[in-house]
Amino acid sequence: MAPVRSFIEPLVEKWLQLDPNPITRADIKTLWDSGDLEELDRRMSQHIQFGTAGLRGKMEAGWARMNDLIIIQTAQGLAEYVLQNVQHALELGLVVGYDHRHNSKHWAELTAQVFAEKGFKIYFLNGFNHTPMVPFSITEMNAACGVMITASHNPKDDNGFKVYWKNGVQIIAPHDQGIAAMIQMHQVPMFKLKNNQILSSCIDITKSLQADYIQYLKSLIACPEPIQNAITYVNTSMHGVSDAILSRAFESIGYPLYIPVKEQQKPDPTFATVSFPNPEEKGALRMALNIANQVEASYILAQDPDADRFCAAEKLNTGIWKIFTGDQLGIIFASQAISNYLQSGNNTTKAALISSTVSSKMLSHIAKLEGLEYQECLTGFKFIGNTALKLEESGYNVIFGYEEAIGYMFGNKIRDKDGIAATLHFVKLVYDLCKQNKTVSMYLDELYEKYGYFETYNGYFKCDKSTIIEEIFYSIRHQSKSQTYPTSLGGFQIYRIIDLTTGYDSGSPPLFKPTLPLSSGHMIQIMGKQLDSSNTFFLTLRTSGTEPKIKFYLEGSGSKKADISKFLRIVVDDLAENWIQASFYSLELC
């Protein structure tokens, strides 16, 4: 059914009244004059919402999109909220940075202008910066908050507005709700656009902060001497911003410079060679693999466009390239962090590790065996960062945190994922292993032999209809005749179900309440075991906050490595056919 004109009309009128940008204002007027109610419905009927990383969406006119008006309103609401909730906010100031995407610099300037109009001191990170520079700068300058204009690894038509609190961590409740409410109270732009120029009151200390950042990374790596070995690395920046800061860091620490994938080395907002610039996506490393084979490289390094994520691959003796999963890198980095911590003369009594609930359970297993504190949190680095701060307040030293989506946290000055720091740690590990005639894949095998075999199988079902998603999750929660959760999957007996949407945990009597906070979307965790064997699985099903998907995160563990892949495939097949009903709903498994 076509949207009702009377519903769309006031939304259009409000837009035409408030939008200060003549191009996007004309765009909406053209759609209205031509009677394109369906397109107006897509752009206007829903208002863009804060997700796990602030605002993110397609760049075009409309309430559901990213544009000048949305940026101004968001900045006005944020500024007012910070004024009311942070003491001495004006003097502490705002840190604002931007990457190379279309509109990024312009929207950073608009944000700075909004805050400057209210009297804030502004620390403006000029030039293309990677996302971790914002939380680092907040910590270094003791700022009241920070904003990074980026859409990370999203397609070229997207951009975003990422918010960090005064603690240098992405916002969580109640700040996100408070900011959203304040945005609704400050819809009218309170100033006129000033030719997109940064106000003279902004403070540009970008170069000194970048130098401090590199020195901080050097302190984390603790590499006493330049690395001298015959290992060749190929690096891809995915058309993003990592190359400039990464090459400086390599030179400063004494690493041999990598060979760049030249076609992807420099910032390019069109992302000319990749449609989805995420190094963990299938095919994203194609060009890097070709170059690596040509130059006979041993390893591939990759960062996503805003350089907060990291991926790596190793050429095995067979000539096959092994692309490490996010969980495998997480376990490798965690083991490295524990080893470095112990070598520094520390004991593990007050050391802690963190991972998201959809990441490998191997980390909790390692923490238990090695005597470290371990905490699990909801998906999203805002939860990992805030969990780290709480642990620090309790006297713990959080030595590492990660999520399976190739995000890794090192040190105590950046409580966020950092692809540059991850790259440097990986190269240092390769160097240390090389002196022992080992490779990273060999090291990973040693960890499996020591702690047990864990293997992940992650994917998603494409589904762009919310009604179908609701039907699927309803049927999962009412699958049996007794209208309760299912009792088996893929030949495994289900022994525990945690529903983080409804607030139910079958394994925590007498209240049966989960320890993790509830999720804003659908999220169900299922634990299964195979009778007469040590094989187990842990499955998380959840909806995406930013994409039309039902995501699943499946991990199997057992005493025999060969068995795990086989039973994971069976579990996924049963999940697709009988729980998600992919054939019935014509959903694609990816």
Automatic annotation (TrEMBL):
Any single GO BP term: glucose metabolic process
Localization per Swiss-Prot or TrEMBL: Cytoplasm
Span of domain Alpha-D-phosphohexomutase alpha/beta/alpha: 48-184, 212-314, 326-451
GO cellular component: cytoplasm; nucleus
Major localisation: cytoplasm
Keyword check for Isomerase: yes
Coiled coil: none
Presence of keyword Magnesium: yes
Pfam family, any one: PGM_PMM_I
Database matches in Gene3D superfamilies: Alpha-D-Glucose-1,6-Bisphosphate, subunit A, domain 3
Keyword annotations from UniProtKB, A to Z: Carbohydrate metabolism, Cytoplasm, Glucose metabolism, Isomerase, Magnesium, Metal-binding, Phosphoprotein
CDD domains in alphabetical order: PGM2
Cofactors named for this entry: Mg(2+)
Gene Ontology MF terms in the entry: magnesium ion binding; phosphopentomutase activity
Matches recorded under PANTHER family: PHOSPHOGLUCOMUTASE 2B-RELATED, PHOSPHOMANNOMUTASE 45A
Family, per entry: Belongs to the phosphohexose mutase family.
UniProt name for this protein: Phosphoglucomutase 1
Annotated organism of origin: Crepidotus variabilis
